[in-house]
Write a structure and sequence with these properties.
The protein is mainly alpha-helical. The protein is built from one helix and no strands.
């Protein structure tokens, strides 16, 4: 009876060991497949990293080129700025001069039509007789 119990235990242990070996083999196979898939994912990501680094470098070059173009345009604007501000700066003086011109032409027209101006205009810079 003891012999039968020992043989049954041996048989049970053998079956348990075979089952453990099968489970180990399946686990090992799954683990190796997982490692291989992860290695492939790592390689793919290394390729993506290289592409992204290339894109970054290209973008930096484009940015520097665009900045150079922008700097040259800004320099052109800066050079042209005094000419653009001429009208703004000189507008009041030019307006005053045009008004004096118009007044003079109207006065000349009136004189030619027989009008006379005896009193002097205090607002005029050029007084009658200054030209002589």
């Amino acid at each position: 009876m003891i012999l039968e119990d020992v043989e049954a235990d041996i048989e049970k242990a053998t079956k348990a060991e075979e089952k453990a070996i099968e489970e180990y083999t399946a686990f090992k196979k799954d683990t190796e497949a997982s490692i291989e898939a992860n290695q492939k994912a790592i390689e793919d990501m290394k390729g993506e990293i290289a592409e992204c680094e290339t894109t970054i470098e290209d973008t930096k070059e484009e940015k520097n080129s665009a900045k150079g173009n922008l700097d040259s345009v800004l320099e052109e604007i800066k050079v042209a700025e005094p000419g653009c501000e001429f009208i703004t700066v000189n507008f009041p003086v030019r307006t005053k001069n045009r008004q004096m011109e118009i007044d003079g032409l109207l006065k000349a027209k009136a004189i030619l039509q027989g009008g006379s101006f005896d009193e002097t205009d205090p607002n005029r810079e050029i007084k009658p007789g200054d030209a002589m």
